[in-house]
Amino acid sequence: MIKFFKILLSFYNKLVITSVGFNSDLFCRIDKRNKKSSINVGNDCLINGRLVCETEISSIDISNNVFIGGATILDCKDSIVIHENVLISYQCLIFDHDSHENISANRINDTYLFRNHLYDWDKIPSKPIIIKKNSWIGARSIITKGVTIGEGAIVAAGSVVTKDVDNYTLVAGNPAVFKKKLY
């Protein structure tokens, strides 16, 4: 019964995604809030957690051989790109936008607007996120808008990344800072 449920869930997820590659398993929640948005998953991926597309231009592109751990959330207004051989551990948050306005008076009606699909995403700042090949994002890390994680980089568990991470470096902390070069 459990195997049947997993197959059914995987089949359902493949229906709502734009494309899914060979030998990829998706055991995740998918929220495409606009039919024009796109989610593309490459070959040999294992995707858990939650993939969210907020707008009609939202695009989540996941390359080959990517692991995304359970309870991880990718929330996309514009673009999140994940290159091949990337590991994203459990309970990570990856948002390419600010989610809400900074002025409290402008947030009062957000619940109503979200519920009724009336939220004006044009007012919310966003910048694409790129996670380059062979990188590893540790558990419970947060990647904020506009960040590029370099090739072969490691983000230590629990880090909050607000700036680009160079290729083959280890960063850690809140905010994440350079710890050492990886060779």
Layout of strands and helices, then pairs:
Layout: H1 2-16, E1 19-20, E2 25-26, E3 29-32, E4 38-41, E5 46-47, E6 50-53, E7 59-62, E8 67-68, E9 73-76, E10 79-82, E11 87-88, E12 93-95, H2 104-107, H3 110-115, E13 129-131, E14 136-137, E15 142-143, E16 148-149, E17 154-155, E18 160-161, E19 169-172, E20 177-181
Parallel strand pairs: 1-4, 2-5, 3-6, 4-7, 5-8, 6-9, 7-10, 8-11, 9-12, 10-13, 11-14, 12-15, 13-16, 14-17, 15-18, 17-19
Antiparallel strand pairs: 19-20
Report the structural category: alpha/beta
Listing every helix as H and every strand as E from the N terminus to the C terminus, the arrangement reads HEEEEEEEEEEEEHHEEEEEEEE
What fraction strand?
25-35%
**Rg, please?**
17 Å
Number of domains: 1
CATH architecture: 3 Solenoid
Number of helices: 3
What is the name of the CATH class? Mainly Beta
**Mean of residue pLDDT values:** 91
> What strand line-up does the widest sheet have?
2-5-8-11-14-17-19-20
Which consecutive residue ranges, at least 5 long each, have pLDDT under 50? Answer: 1-8
Spatial separation of the terminal alpha carbons: 46 Å
Tally of DSSP β-strands: 20
**Major β-sheet, in short?**
8 strands, mixed
Q: What's the name of the CATH homologous superfamily? A: Hexapeptide repeat proteins
Quick one: overall form? globular
